[in-house]
């Protein structure tokens, strides 16, 4: 049996390590959701700590992360009195015709205005529960970057595969890559049947969102609440 390799970042404390270990296929949905929210809170606290003078963030997430991981980050921003807006994307991961790589077109989106305080430049935060390759993160950055021109692009996740950073940066010009910062808790080194290992388990199933088709029919509560507030 293969022994999967994981290296924790210097940001990880015993609480975070325990939460990370709970992200596995044996987890029950309520506990898994709770762990994701708590990890989002920890990621948000670290982002705020590393960017103490930043008053405004533009948070970009996927539909499956919105009510859990991304909500934890938003809670951290609220606690730390940071202004923010949200963009949420429904991505459909598909193989290209030659089956050599995946694409992740946006099939639906919720996008709030980019509204930093006067005389202030905001920073984009793009969050995903696991960053394996570049397709989803790349697609979602490109959906918003031209309209907001962020000062920095903070890529954040509990887990990144060892090749994720290099794959992502190949998709952008040097000027954009120079804006990238990374906040993450673990680097995983192995893949098995195209899944990162040890990874975070079957995220759609464990969050109670079914498969890709079912989760793309789901409207996060946080999106409903924020949309109602804008309307």
Walkthrough of the structure:
The chain is an alpha/beta fold and 231 residues long. It has one domain: Rossmann fold. Helices cover 36% and strands 26% of the residues. It is built from 9 helices and 12 strands. The strands form 3 sheets. Strands 1, 2, 3, 6, 7, 8, 9 and 10 form an 8-stranded mixed β-sheet that branches. Strand 8, helix 4 and strand 9 form a beta-alpha-beta unit. Helix 2 crosses helix 3. The model has no long low-confidence stretch (mean pLDDT 93).
Structural features:
12 strands; two-stranded antiparallel ribbon; eight-stranded mixed sheet; 231 residues; Rossmann fold; 26% strand
What's the layout of helices and strands?
Elements (H helix, E strand, L loop, with lengths): L5 E3 L5 H8 L7 H22 L5 E7 L6 H11 L3 E9 L2 E2 L6 E2 L2 E6 L11 E5 L2 E2 L3 H14 L4 E9 L2 H6 L4 H4 L2 E9 L1 E3 L2 E3 L5 H4 L5 H4 L5 H10 L1
Uncertain segments are none
CATH class: Alpha Beta
H/E series: EHHEHEEEEEEHEHHEEEHHH
Radius of gyration using CA atoms only: 17 Å
Q: Could you tell me the number of beta strands?
A: 12
Shape: globular
Number of domains: 1
* Percentage beta strand: 25-35%
The amount of helix comes to: 25-40%
Class of secondary structure makeup: alpha/beta
Please describe the biggest sheet, giving its number of strands, its sense, and whether it closes into a barrel.
8 strands, mixed
Number of helices: 9
Distance between the termini: 54 Å
Average residue-wise pLDDT: 93
How would you concisely characterize the structure shown here?
This protein is of the alpha/beta class and 231 residues long. The protein has nine helices and twelve strands. The longest helix has 22 residues, at 29-50.
């Amino acid at each position: 049996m293969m022994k999967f390799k994981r290296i924790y970042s210097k940001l990880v404390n015993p609480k975070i390590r325990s939460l990370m270990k709970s992200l596995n296929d044996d987890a029950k949905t309520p506990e898994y959701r709770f762990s994701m929210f708590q990890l989002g809170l920890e990621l948000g606290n670290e982002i705020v700590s590393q960017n103490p003078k930043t008053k405004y963030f533009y948070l970009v997430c996927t539909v499956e992360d919105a009510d859990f991981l991304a909500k934890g980050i938003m809670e951290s921003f609220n606690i730390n009195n940071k202004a923010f807006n949200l963009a949420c994307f429904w991505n459909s991961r598909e193989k290209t015709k030659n089956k050599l790589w995946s694409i992740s077109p946006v099939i639906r989106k919720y996008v709030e205005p980019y509204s930093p305080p006067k005389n202030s430049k905001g920073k984009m935060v793009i969050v995903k529960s696991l960053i394996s390759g570049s397709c989803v993160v790349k697609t979602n950055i490109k959906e918003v970057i031209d309209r907001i021109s962020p000062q920095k692009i903070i890529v954040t996740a509990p887990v990144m595969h060892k090749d994720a950073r290099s794959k992502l940066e190949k998709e952008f010009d040097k000027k954009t890559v120079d804006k990238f910062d990374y906040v993450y808790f673990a680097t995983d080194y192995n893949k098995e049947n195209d899944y990162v290992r040890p990874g975070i388990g079957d995220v759609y199933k464990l969050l109670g969102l079914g498969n890709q088709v079912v989760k793309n029919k789901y409207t996060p509560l946080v999106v409903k609440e924020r949309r109602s507030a804008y309307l």
